[in-house]
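Bug #77: duplicate submission created two jobs. Keeping one. Sequence:
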Amino acid sequence: MQAFAPLEAGDPARIGPYRLVGRLGSGGMGRVYLARSPGGRATAVKVVHDELAEDPSFRTRFRREVTAARRVTGPFTAPLVDADPDAEVPWLATAHVPGLSLGAAVARHGAWPERSVRALGSGLAEALEAIHRARVVHRDLKPSNVLLAPDGPRVIDFGISVAADDTKLTATGAMVGSPGYLPPEQLIGREVGPAGDVFALGALMVYAATGTNAFGGGHAHGVSYRVVHEEPDLSGLPGELAGVVGRCLAKDPLRRPGVPELVAELGRWEGDGGARSTFTGAAWLPAPVADDVMALRTDPLPEEASADLPTGADLPTVGPAHTDVATARLGGPPGRPSSAARPGEWIRQRRTAVLAAAGTLVVLAVVAGLLLPRAFSGSSRGNGSGSTAAPTAVTKQLKVREEWPSDEDLWHPVVAGGKVVGEGQDGLLHAVHTDSGDTAWTYDDPTASSLEGVSDGLVVASGNERGTIQGISLDSGKQVWSVDARAHTAPGTTFHLYLRIVVVDGTVYVNALYDLPAGSKPSGRYAVSALDAATGRLKWTRPVEYGLSDALTVVDGVLYGGMWGKDGSYFYALDAKTGDQRWRYRTQDEYGTEVTAIKVSGDTVYAGDSRGELHAVDARRGTRLWTYEPDVQSRKWLEPLLVTDGVILGGTGENDSTRSPGDVHAVAAGSGKPLWTTHTEGEPELHGLLDGSVLFSTETGTLHAADARTGKSPARTRLSPDNPDAAVVGDRVYFDGGDGRLHAGRISLTEK
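Kept job's structure:
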C-alpha cells in the first residue's frame, strides 16, 4: 500500500535542505510533500499558499506559531523538526507518520469497537496534554488531522493552522474550521481555549465509535446549528463511554472535563484479554485497520523523485505558483483571498441553483490547498467497477484555449443569456459579457449577494441577513421583484437561513430553517414553502419538525425533496401548486441521512443520499425501482446527476468541509448496474457532455473528460492551481484561474 502519490511536473524538487520524493496531500494551509532529510529521515514538508505568503500579517502569525509548535513534545504528536517562516514561500517540516488518517480508516472499514475507541481517546488526550502544556490550542482537531500508527494515534497540524485561520478571519470575518468538530463557543464568535479541543476530542470519539458525526450529516450550516442548539446523538455508544463523551460535548466549556482528567479516565482501556493494554504492534486498532496501517509502515521511501522530473544541480526550488491553460499563459497570480477565506464559505460546502429555465448549475464552496502545476494531459485512474475491461491508454487530448480574462473575479459563476453572473469580492453581484469578459452591470444591493441561479431571464439572489429573495433582470441588472422572509415565517418563529431556493414559473420555492423561542425543544424548525414572485404572497407552506435536506427541484408541476424524521429519512414528492403530498419514499431507517442530489428523467426520479446510496424511484407512484451503492470511500452523492443515452452519471465525495478525494460513477439508468467508476484527487463536479464524453472538474484545479458509456479514453488539463469554480456551456468553460480573475476558454477534445 502506497501512502503517497508521485511528484508531478511543476512540483519543486527541493525545499530548503529537503529533497522531495512524493505528494502526501493538501489542506487549508498548503501542499504537503514527502521528503528525505539530508540524513535520510522521512519528513513531511508543508509549503504554504502563495496568497498567505504575500500577507505580512500571516508571516508574523506563522513565525509566532512555529515558535510555539517547537515547544510541543509528546509521544502522540508529530513534532516540528524544521521551518523557515522567512523564506520566499514559507515552509515547515514535521516528522513523517506513515499511517492512515482516522477519516480514511473509518470511511474504509466502518465503526470501531469500544476498546479501540477508548485507546484512541486515551492517546489523543495525552497528545492534547502535551500541546496545551506548550500553551498551544489546536483549534482544528478533526479526522484528517489524526494519523494512526502501530504505537498509537498522532495529532498533526497543532497550532500551525491558527496562523492561516487567523489571517483569513482578519481578512474576511468568516469562520474557518470543520463543522461538527468546532465547539459552540467558536461558532458564536467567543474565545476558544483548551476546552474547545476537548469538545473536538469528544466528537472524534463519536465518529470512531459510530462512523457518523455526533451532530448529524449534511451541509455545514445545518451541522453547526445543531452543535450550538441541539444535543449530540450518542445512541451508538456504550453507556460508560457515552458518559465521558457527553461531558466532552457539553455546550458550556466550563462543564467539560479537563485533559488530565480524560487522560486518567480513558487511559484505563483494556486489550482483547481484559488486561490493561499498551500501544504495541497495532493491536489497539480494529483488525482491518491494523492491517492497512502495518502495510503503510513497511512501504519504503523512494530513492529518487519521479523519473519525469529533471535531474542535476539545477533542480528547481519552491517558488511562486503559476498556471497554464493549454498553450495560453494566464500570468502570475497577485495576492488574493483563498477559496477558504471567501465570506460565508465556512457554512457552504456546495450550493446548486436548480432553476427550470437554466437547468442544473452547480457551484462549489470548498477548502482548497496549494498546487504548483503546469498544463498537462494524462490518464485518470479508474477501477472498472462493473465493467468488462479497465480503461485503455489515453487516446484523446483535452485542451482549453483561453479566449479572455475578465477584470472581475466572480465566484459561483452562472452562464445564461450571453452573460456570466457571479458573486464578487466586493460582496456584490456582477455580470460580464460572455464574448468579451467586459462588465455588463453591477447590482449594488449587498443584501442580495448570494447568487441562487438564473430563471426566465431573471437572476435570483438572496441574503440571509434579512431573508429577502430578489429577482434581478439579467439584461439590465435592475430589480424586478422582491420576496420578504416574513411572508413564510410562522408565528412564534424567527427566520434563520435558507437551505435552498428554486424559482419556477413565477413561484419561489424555499427550504428554510427557523429559530424557536429560547428554551424550546427542539430549538429550530424547518419548512418548505411556495411564494408568488410577483406579489410576495405565501401560496402554501409545510412545516417539518426534524430536518430538510437542501436538495430541491421542481419538474412538471411536482416538487421533489428530502427530509428526515424521528423514524427515518425520506425522499418525497409534493404537488407544486398546493403543497399536498403525492408520495413519500423511505431512503434509510436512520435519523439524519439526507438526500443530496436529485435528477428527474422521464418517469423516473433519481436521488443520491449522504450515506452513499443512489435510488431510482417511479416518479408517479414513489415506488422503488432499484438502488445502487458504490464500493468507494467517498460516500455522499453530489449534484448534479446527469442522464444520457440510458446512463446516469454522478459524483460522490466526503461528508465534511475539508478537501478530500472523490469518484465519478456511471450506472445503467434502467437497472442500476454499475458500468464504471473513476477516482478523482478532489471532489468532482460534473458539467455535461461533449462529443460523447462526460466533462467534470475537481477542486484541485483540473478539467477531465471520459467516455460517458465506458469511462475509457480519459483526458485532463489544468485550469487553475486551486478550485476552478467552473461553469461549462457547450464547449465554453468559465473558471477562476487562480490569479484573481474570471477566465473564459474554449474546450477541444481531439484524438491524439
